[in-house]
Hints:
mainly alpha; 2 domains; 6 helices; 0% strand; elongated; Lipoyl synthase; signal
Amino acid sequence: MTMAAASAAAPAVVPTAARAAAFDFACTTTLGQPGGRSRDKLAPIAVRIVAAGGPALPKPPWRRERRMTRETVAARAAVPRTHRLHSVREAAMRPNLGECFASAPRRS
């Protein structure tokens, strides 16, 4: 086989845009790549949520939020400190320490 015959038999490299046109994709992505599935995923859902008429029902007792005062949180946080214990939640300076110490046993 001669050199000219070998080069004639090799397939030509088709540019990306020509390859996309050959596959006849319906649309392209935002990066200009073929395919539009991401556009379908981001399309708004045609479901309308309508609020029920009438007054809102009250929350059950177990669902109501019971906020703790700063004094209560400080008193409950002082108990581990008296035993020289450290809380991970306090070290992380979590804003919801009231929730962390809410389940602590109450002393009278």
